[in-house]
Amino acid sequence: MNTELILRGIDAEIDKLLRVRAILLEVAEPAPIKPVSVKRAYAKRAPVVDAEPEPRVTILPPRQKREYTRRPKPAATAPNALSASVSDKPVFVPKTAPLAIPAQAAPPPDDSALEAAMRQHLLGGAAPVRSVN
């Protein structure tokens, strides 16, 4: 016979019985009952339920378009104390400048002027211009 297998079975049964004993001891000793305060009992009222619940979807009437009416502009009144006085004399407006500006003839590009400008820009300051003759 295999005694090791039998011993394992007995140990398993003993473990089960020990767990059952611990549960029975907890049940046998009553847990101390805490007195319920009056405030808590008063605060735990049942929620009031309406006899006819509100519908979940509310259907709105179609949106009305706004009607716009023109409002009259306020008429010109007397000027304020700090503003310029209104003149009774006619106002003269100068003629407008001609729309087309006469095109100026551009001088032909000069290589020496371009070279001098690039030297001044790159080297900083006035650089002497070498003449190529």
* Biggest sheet layout: none
Shape by Cα distribution: elongated
Structural class: mainly alpha
Give helix and strand order, one letter per element, not per position: HHH
Percent range for β-strand residues: under 5%
- Terminal CA distance reads 125 Å
Gyration radius over CA = 53 Å
The average pLDDT value, as a whole number, equals: 78
Strand count: 0
How many individual helices? 3
Unreliable runs = none
Q: How much helicity do the residues have?
A: 25-40%
Q: Please, could you describe this protein's structure?
A:
The structure is a single chain. The protein has 133 residues and is mainly α. The chain has a domain at 1-32. Helices cover 34% and strands 0% of the residues. The chain contains three helices and no strands. It starts with a helix and ends in a 10-residue tail after the last helix.
Structure keywords:
mainly alpha; 133 residues
Gist of the model:
This protein is mostly helical and 133 residues long.
Q: Could you outline the blueprint of secondary structure elements for this entry?
A:
Elements: H1 3-28, H2 38-43, H3 111-123
